[in-house]
Automatic annotation (TrEMBL):
InterPro entries linked to this entry: Fumarylacetoacetase-like_C, Fumarylacetoacetase_C_sf
Domain Fumarylacetoacetase-like C-terminal: 27-227
Alphabetized PANTHER family for the sequence: ACYLPYRUVASE (PTHR11820), FLUTATHIONE S-TRANSFERASE (PTHR11820:SF90)
Keywords: Hydrolase, Metal-binding
Keyword Transcription: no
GO MF term set: hydrolase activity
Annotated transmembrane regions: none
Annotated protein name in UniProt: Fumarylacetoacetate hydrolase family protein
Pfam families per record: FAA_hydrolase
Length: 227
Protein backbone atom coordinates (compact mmCIF):
# COMPACT_ATOMS: atom_id res chain seq x y z
CA UNK A 1 0.00 0.00 0.00
CA UNK A 2 1.36 3.41 -0.96
CA UNK A 3 1.80 6.19 1.62
CA UNK A 4 1.18 8.83 -1.03
CA UNK A 5 -2.16 10.61 -0.73
CA UNK A 6 -2.40 11.12 -4.50
CA UNK A 7 -0.94 9.06 -7.36
CA UNK A 8 2.72 9.81 -8.04
CA UNK A 9 3.11 12.22 -11.00
CA UNK A 10 5.01 10.89 -14.01
CA UNK A 11 8.80 11.21 -13.84
CA UNK A 12 10.01 13.72 -16.50
CA UNK A 13 12.72 12.15 -18.64
CA UNK A 14 14.67 12.80 -21.85
CA UNK A 15 15.33 10.03 -24.37
CA UNK A 16 18.92 9.06 -25.09
CA UNK A 17 20.40 7.93 -28.40
CA UNK A 18 20.76 4.38 -27.12
CA UNK A 19 17.04 4.09 -26.35
CA UNK A 20 17.25 4.73 -22.63
CA UNK A 21 15.71 7.54 -20.59
CA UNK A 22 17.49 10.24 -18.58
CA UNK A 23 15.32 11.17 -15.55
CA UNK A 24 15.25 14.91 -14.86
CA UNK A 25 15.42 16.45 -11.38
CA UNK A 26 15.91 20.19 -12.00
CA UNK A 27 16.41 22.52 -14.97
CA UNK A 28 18.77 25.49 -14.68
CA UNK A 29 19.08 28.03 -17.53
CA UNK A 30 21.82 30.62 -17.87
CA UNK A 31 20.87 34.04 -19.21
CA UNK A 32 22.74 36.09 -21.82
CA UNK A 33 25.72 33.72 -22.15
CA UNK A 34 26.71 34.79 -25.69
CA UNK A 35 28.01 38.36 -26.04
CA UNK A 36 26.15 39.10 -29.29
CA UNK A 37 22.87 37.93 -27.76
CA UNK A 38 23.44 40.11 -24.69
CA UNK A 39 23.87 43.10 -27.02
CA UNK A 40 20.72 42.32 -29.03
CA UNK A 41 18.77 42.14 -25.76
CA UNK A 42 20.08 45.57 -24.77
CA UNK A 43 22.75 44.57 -22.25
CA UNK A 44 26.50 45.02 -21.82
CA UNK A 45 28.33 41.83 -22.88
CA UNK A 46 31.17 42.30 -20.37
CA UNK A 47 31.91 39.24 -18.26
CA UNK A 48 29.75 39.93 -15.23
CA UNK A 49 28.75 37.19 -12.74
CA UNK A 50 26.38 34.74 -14.45
CA UNK A 51 22.70 34.60 -13.61
CA UNK A 52 20.28 31.71 -13.88
CA UNK A 53 16.56 31.12 -14.02
CA UNK A 54 14.70 27.81 -13.95
CA UNK A 55 12.25 25.88 -16.05
CA UNK A 56 10.23 22.98 -14.69
CA UNK A 57 11.33 19.40 -15.41
CA UNK A 58 8.00 18.66 -17.12
CA UNK A 59 8.53 21.64 -19.48
CA UNK A 60 10.99 19.40 -21.35
CA UNK A 61 9.32 17.93 -24.43
CA UNK A 62 10.84 15.42 -26.84
CA UNK A 63 7.71 15.02 -29.00
CA UNK A 64 8.96 17.21 -31.87
CA UNK A 65 5.85 19.41 -31.55
CA UNK A 66 5.65 22.83 -29.89
CA UNK A 67 2.08 23.94 -29.15
CA UNK A 68 1.91 27.73 -29.47
CA UNK A 69 1.16 28.86 -25.91
CA UNK A 70 -1.77 30.98 -24.71
CA UNK A 71 -1.60 34.58 -23.45
CA UNK A 72 1.18 35.54 -25.88
CA UNK A 73 1.55 36.96 -29.37
CA UNK A 74 5.35 37.03 -29.41
CA UNK A 75 6.97 33.64 -28.79
CA UNK A 76 10.69 33.42 -29.59
CA UNK A 77 13.11 30.59 -30.33
CA UNK A 78 16.46 30.20 -28.54
CA UNK A 79 18.72 27.28 -29.50
CA UNK A 80 20.88 25.97 -26.65
CA UNK A 81 23.31 23.25 -25.63
CA UNK A 82 21.81 21.00 -22.96
CA UNK A 83 24.12 19.61 -20.28
CA UNK A 84 22.89 16.55 -18.35
CA UNK A 85 24.51 15.71 -15.00
CA UNK A 86 25.19 12.21 -13.72
CA UNK A 87 26.25 13.38 -10.25
CA UNK A 88 26.60 16.59 -8.29
CA UNK A 89 27.43 18.10 -4.94
CA UNK A 90 28.30 21.45 -3.39
CA UNK A 91 31.19 23.77 -4.21
CA UNK A 92 32.43 21.72 -7.16
CA UNK A 93 35.84 22.88 -8.41
CA UNK A 94 36.00 24.04 -12.03
CA UNK A 95 38.68 21.45 -12.82
CA UNK A 96 36.41 18.64 -11.51
CA UNK A 97 33.13 19.87 -13.00
CA UNK A 98 33.12 17.84 -16.22
CA UNK A 99 33.40 14.61 -14.20
CA UNK A 100 29.76 15.21 -13.24
CA UNK A 101 28.42 15.36 -16.83
CA UNK A 102 26.53 12.38 -18.27
CA UNK A 103 26.03 13.83 -21.72
CA UNK A 104 24.80 16.58 -24.00
CA UNK A 105 21.86 17.41 -26.23
CA UNK A 106 20.21 20.06 -28.37
CA UNK A 107 17.40 22.07 -26.81
CA UNK A 108 15.21 25.13 -27.40
CA UNK A 109 14.43 27.68 -24.71
CA UNK A 110 11.08 28.88 -26.05
CA UNK A 111 10.13 32.25 -24.58
CA UNK A 112 6.92 34.25 -24.33
CA UNK A 113 8.95 37.39 -25.03
CA UNK A 114 6.08 39.82 -24.52
CA UNK A 115 5.33 38.41 -21.07
CA UNK A 116 9.01 38.22 -20.16
CA UNK A 117 9.36 41.87 -21.15
CA UNK A 118 6.46 42.85 -18.90
CA UNK A 119 8.07 41.05 -15.97
CA UNK A 120 11.42 42.75 -16.58
CA UNK A 121 9.80 46.19 -16.51
CA UNK A 122 8.14 45.40 -13.19
CA UNK A 123 11.23 43.75 -11.68
CA UNK A 124 9.41 40.44 -11.32
CA UNK A 125 10.53 36.82 -11.96
CA UNK A 126 10.53 35.48 -15.52
CA UNK A 127 8.73 32.17 -15.04
CA UNK A 128 5.55 33.32 -16.78
CA UNK A 129 7.62 33.92 -19.91
CA UNK A 130 10.00 30.98 -19.59
CA UNK A 131 8.50 28.08 -17.62
CA UNK A 132 5.24 27.37 -19.43
CA UNK A 133 4.12 23.98 -20.78
CA UNK A 134 6.26 22.50 -23.59
CA UNK A 135 8.67 25.47 -23.36
CA UNK A 136 11.81 23.34 -23.68
CA UNK A 137 11.82 21.09 -26.76
CA UNK A 138 14.74 18.64 -26.51
CA UNK A 139 16.47 16.11 -28.69
CA UNK A 140 17.94 12.74 -27.72
CA UNK A 141 20.92 12.96 -25.36
CA UNK A 142 24.38 11.83 -26.41
CA UNK A 143 26.60 10.31 -23.68
CA UNK A 144 30.05 11.73 -23.02
CA UNK A 145 31.48 8.36 -24.06
CA UNK A 146 30.31 9.11 -27.62
CA UNK A 147 30.69 12.89 -28.01
CA UNK A 148 33.24 13.88 -25.38
CA UNK A 149 32.85 17.39 -23.97
CA UNK A 150 32.05 19.73 -26.90
CA UNK A 151 33.54 23.16 -26.29
CA UNK A 152 33.55 24.43 -29.87
CA UNK A 153 31.48 23.91 -33.00
CA UNK A 154 28.58 25.59 -34.72
CA UNK A 155 25.28 26.06 -32.89
CA UNK A 156 22.50 27.12 -35.25
CA UNK A 157 18.76 27.37 -35.77
CA UNK A 158 16.82 27.45 -39.04
CA UNK A 159 13.16 28.39 -39.40
CA UNK A 160 11.49 27.02 -42.54
CA UNK A 161 14.98 26.51 -44.00
CA UNK A 162 16.18 30.08 -43.32
CA UNK A 163 19.13 30.52 -40.98
CA UNK A 164 18.08 32.60 -37.97
CA UNK A 165 20.70 31.88 -35.31
CA UNK A 166 24.35 30.97 -35.71
CA UNK A 167 27.27 30.96 -33.32
CA UNK A 168 30.01 28.77 -31.92
CA UNK A 169 30.15 27.02 -28.57
CA UNK A 170 33.54 28.64 -27.97
CA UNK A 171 31.75 32.02 -27.86
CA UNK A 172 30.02 31.17 -24.58
CA UNK A 173 31.00 33.75 -21.96
CA UNK A 174 30.73 31.18 -19.17
CA UNK A 175 31.92 27.72 -20.18
CA UNK A 176 30.24 24.51 -19.01
CA UNK A 177 32.70 23.74 -16.17
CA UNK A 178 32.32 27.30 -14.87
CA UNK A 179 28.53 27.10 -14.93
CA UNK A 180 28.53 23.83 -12.98
CA UNK A 181 31.00 25.18 -10.42
CA UNK A 182 29.10 28.46 -9.99
CA UNK A 183 25.71 26.78 -9.59
CA UNK A 184 27.11 24.35 -7.04
CA UNK A 185 28.03 27.28 -4.82
CA UNK A 186 24.36 28.19 -4.46
CA UNK A 187 22.56 24.86 -4.96
CA UNK A 188 23.30 21.23 -4.20
CA UNK A 189 23.54 19.74 -7.67
CA UNK A 190 22.58 16.10 -8.22
CA UNK A 191 22.15 13.38 -10.80
CA UNK A 192 19.30 14.27 -13.13
CA UNK A 193 19.97 18.01 -13.13
CA UNK A 194 19.99 19.72 -16.51
CA UNK A 195 21.62 22.99 -17.56
CA UNK A 196 20.65 24.98 -20.67
CA UNK A 197 23.85 26.79 -21.62
CA UNK A 198 22.64 29.95 -23.37
CA UNK A 199 21.81 31.04 -26.91
CA UNK A 200 23.63 32.93 -29.68
CA UNK A 201 22.23 36.06 -31.31
CA UNK A 202 19.39 36.00 -33.82
CA UNK A 203 16.49 35.09 -31.53
CA UNK A 204 13.13 35.87 -33.07
CA UNK A 205 9.45 35.02 -33.27
CA UNK A 206 7.84 31.80 -34.43
CA UNK A 207 4.39 31.28 -35.91
CA UNK A 208 2.03 28.34 -36.08
CA UNK A 209 3.07 26.11 -38.96
CA UNK A 210 6.79 26.94 -38.72
CA UNK A 211 9.35 24.16 -38.94
CA UNK A 212 12.41 24.60 -36.72
CA UNK A 213 15.74 22.84 -37.16
CA UNK A 214 18.21 23.28 -34.30
CA UNK A 215 21.70 21.82 -34.61
CA UNK A 216 24.99 21.69 -32.72
CA UNK A 217 28.10 20.27 -34.37
CA UNK A 218 29.08 16.97 -32.79
CA UNK A 219 25.93 16.81 -30.66
CA UNK A 220 23.01 16.41 -33.06
CA UNK A 221 19.85 17.96 -34.48
CA UNK A 222 16.39 18.74 -33.18
CA UNK A 223 13.38 19.19 -35.48
CA UNK A 224 10.30 20.87 -34.06
CA UNK A 225 6.95 21.81 -35.61
CA UNK A 226 5.07 24.80 -34.20
CA UNK A 227 1.40 23.77 -33.92
Amino acid sequence: MSDHVIPLPPQPAIPTVDGGLFPVRRVYCIGRNFAAHAVEMGHDPDREPPFFFQKNPDNLDSSGRFPYPPRSDDVHHEVELLVALTSGGRDIAVEDALDHVWGYGVALDMTRRDLQGQMKKMGRPWEIGKAFEHSAPVGALQPVSQVGHPDRGQIALRVNGTLRQQGDLNQMIWKVPEMISYLSGYFTLAAGDVILAGTPSGVGPVDRGDELLASIDGVGELRVSVV
